[in-house]
Amino acid sequence: MWRRLSRMVRSFVGFFISVGENPELILEQNIRDMNDQVPRMNESIAMVKANATLLEKENDRYKNQVNDLTAKVKASIQGGRDDLAGSFAIQLEQVRGALARNQAQLQTAHSALDKALAVKKAFMLEKERKTQEALNAIRDYRRAQWQKKVADSMETFEVAGISQTHDEMVRKIEEQTAVNEARMELALGNVDQQKIKIEEEAEKMQANELVKQFKAEMGLLSPQASSGPAQKTIGGTEAQKTA
């Protein structure tokens, strides 16, 4: 009883410890964490790509403004309006400066997008590798846990107790067999042994007489040897034979 109680207490303590440090649960949580990082990474990449898209649109707008202002400057000069041409030229220089800054920013955005996509690719490969490694480790852990249960069952298997019960049952059967044999001997001892012997002798005499009669009928014995108090044979009386 004490051993069973001690084993039960140890099992409870081991359960709480195993729950807190269960490798299977930790690896499964790691897999979920890696999967949760993918949407966040996609969101970050989407923001970087959106920024690059906005810069591309601004770049196109600046280019259109440069073309438009260039045309206006040329038209003003051809029209003899140098004052307007100068005003448009100043605006053109400002737009060209904005275009140059925008192109630098666009190049940085494209570079950042390429790096983000490369990071995602590397992360997905590493995620796949770690996920597969974790799944393999979980399978190994489950197999080890099953083997541990089998080992624990074998360790707690009380061979001595079973042997004791086995020997006790065998001894009881042997005792019952001995008692029944003794009762049988007593029962047989109460039978009239003398009567049994007389009946056995009578059966032997009857058997001998029948054999003599067969031999006489077969002509193997003389009539005197086969004669006796009774003239009855196996086949009937002598008169019945002659008839």
Structure description:
With 243 residues, this protein is mainly α. The protein has seven helices and no strands. Helix 2 packs antiparallel against helix 3 (82-155).
List strands and helices in order, with pairings.
Elements: H1 2-20, H2 23-78, H3 82-155, H4 159-189, H5 193-217, H6 223-226, H7 238-242
Largest sheet: none
Write down the overall geometry: rod-shaped
Computed CA radius of gyration, to the nearest angstrom:
59 Å
Whole-number average pLDDT? 79
Distance between the termini: 95 Å
Q: Give me the count of strands.
A: 0
**pLDDT < 50 runs, ≥5 residues:** 229-243
Q: Note the total helix count.
A: 7
Helix-strand category: mainly alpha
How much strand content do the residues show? under 5%
Counting copies of identical and different chains, the oligomeric state is single chain
The helix fraction, in percent, is: over 70%
What pattern of helices and strands is seen along the backbone? HHHHHHH
